[in-house]
Design a protein that fits this description.
about 80 residues, 4 strands, globular
Length: about 80
């Protein structure tokens, strides 16, 4: 199990693409865009994926209420 988790809200032009496939952390991508091909790519490369629209902190709050995040030592929400 990885000790670190990144929860990122991502649109079509997100810079988090460079963070995929880490041996150090899991990445939970919350995609709020409209492009099906980008959504598919993010879903395949993320450890966890959610497609949802809304303000950033409401999306993150949803994940924190519905995901087992307490098993991680550190969480980053850029």
């Amino acid at each position: 199990m990885k000790k670190f988790l990144i929860i990122v809200c991502a649109g079509d032009n997100s810079y988090h693409k460079k963070w995929f496939n880490s041996n150090v952390y899991d990445i939970y991508t919350i995609y709020f865009g409209n492009n099906e091909s980008i959504a598919d790519k993010f879903e395949k490369k993320s450890d966890f994926f959610l497609r949802m629209k809304g303000p950033k902190w409401q999306l993150i709050r949803y994940v924190l209420k519905n995901f087992e995040w307490r098993k991680y030592k550190y969480i980053w929400m850029p």
